[in-house]
Amino acid sequence: MALNRALAVLLQRTGYKSSFGTGLRRNIITCHEVVRPKTTGEVLDALKSHVGYTGDHPAFASGSLPKLPTSQDELPPRSMRDSYDECIIPLATSLQVQKSHISASGIVRFGRILEDMDVFAVWLCYRHLQYPGMSFGVPMPVNVVTALVDNIHSESIEFPTQFDIKLRGHISWVGRTSLESTMEVLLLAPDETPKMLTAKFVMVAKKASSKEAAVVNKLVPSNAEEEAIFQRGEASVQRRKAFQEQSILKVPPNREERMLLHKLFQENFDPETYILKSDECPHGAIWMHDAKLTNVIICQPEFENLYNKVFGGFLMRSAYELAWSTAYLLSGRRPRPYHTDDIWFRKPVEVGSLLHYEAQVVYTRENFMQLNVNATVINPNTGRKEITNVFHFTFQLDGEGPAPRVTPKSYPESLLYIEGRRYLEMAMAIPEKIDPSTIPDSRPT
């Protein structure tokens, strides 16, 4: 059920402007040129051909890389129409896709949708890239990797399993070496095609077999619609920069947040005895350090991407499913994905790595739960640990009852609590645009 919210108050409090805007603004261009969209499997096969993927070694060894442009002025400008494409997740017609995408409880696995979007985002980037003397389909000496997933707003809507799903999108903004892929996910129902969610992936181009960045073609808007989309991409860059500059790791909590932390402290303080009840959790709450689950994955070759690293979509799916399980076990009620934000890919994960996931509930309000997931690579020989990925998920629980309340016990946990509160308020501040009545029932019977 949609919740009425005081959006203006939340927007003012968080300083947040939705990158999606209202239902009157388009996220992608109007385009009707795709005669027969590829399936997700066909897109993956085309990508393998385009980068010269062989499965056992990179197409371009170190030192064999052709000379690439060093300036965007050496590359032809591109339009949004150049990269626009559509593809189909054949959920209704492919038994193989049904096996991989439908859960045991009979609903579409959101983690699989994340994987499909990651592949499609890379595909759109390669459609945008055009280097002199290199035709499309010839092995490309450039790797496109996911740097950030920014704003996937799903509003707790679940995908029915009896219809195919369409992905469509294009490059909506570029920097010097980075590209923003904006995508929409639609349900191919017989009577209408409702939009289920919008996603923005920020990708980075790198020279093959190298950590060096590669320049990308400029994006030149060709009309007012494209200019508006491009400017929203630029605004998203500035918003992310401002949010990171105000990160809880860099800037102390503001006055309102400090008052909230003081209120939490008072819950554990007995004014009559002056005793701090540090070992006694406030009534009806759960200590934050008890609201977590962990998992360790051996990154086998089956999880590798086109460049012989671990596939980013697999990392997202694994993190999402652990976060979902954590929310379910803590609340005892089925969580629905409401919002996904600020998934950071700090560095690639090598095949063979031991990857440790830790999912933690950091904040709850009403029937919403905010979870963080950290992915850490562990070197078993030296014991050295390094965080490679950070994920933020917002879930809405079935039913109207409140989610279990979590409370921090230490100062670092208090900072996580404040950060989780910020992410949840941003998610709740996004205007709801999906009409649940347009979505066929997805519940198993």
Describe this structure in words.
Residues 87-209, 289-401 form the HotDog ACOT-type domain. One of its GO terms (molecular function) is hydrolase activity. The strands form three sheets. The chain has an eleven-stranded mixed β-sheet. Strands 7-8 form a two-stranded antiparallel sheet. The protein has nine helices and 15 strands. The model is unreliable at 1-24 (pLDDT under 50). The protein has helices at 7-14, 40-51, 80-83, 95-101, 110-128, 224-245, 255-267, 312-331, 411-429; strands at 38-39, 85-89, 142-153, 165-174, 178-187, 195-207, 269-270, 275-276, 285-287, 292-298, 335-345, 354-365, 368-378, 385-397, 405-407. It is an alpha+beta fold and 445 residues long. The protein starts with 6 loop residues before the first helix and ends in a 16-residue tail after the last helix. The chain has one domain (7-438): Thiol Ester Dehydrase, Chain A (Roll), CATH 3.10.129. The radius of gyration is 23 Å and the shape is globular. Helix 5 (110-128) packs antiparallel against helix 8 (312-331).
What's the layout of helices and strands?
Layout: H1 7-14, E1 38-39, H2 40-51, H3 80-83, E2 85-89, H4 95-101, H5 110-128, E3 142-153, E4 165-174, E5 178-187, E6 195-207, H6 224-245, H7 255-267, E7 269-270, E8 275-276, E9 285-287, E10 292-298, H8 312-331, E11 335-345, E12 354-365, E13 368-378, E14 385-397, E15 405-407, H9 411-429
Parallel strand pairs: 1-2, 9-15
Antiparallel strand pairs: 2-4, 3-6, 3-11, 4-5, 5-6, 7-8, 10-12, 11-14, 12-13, 13-14
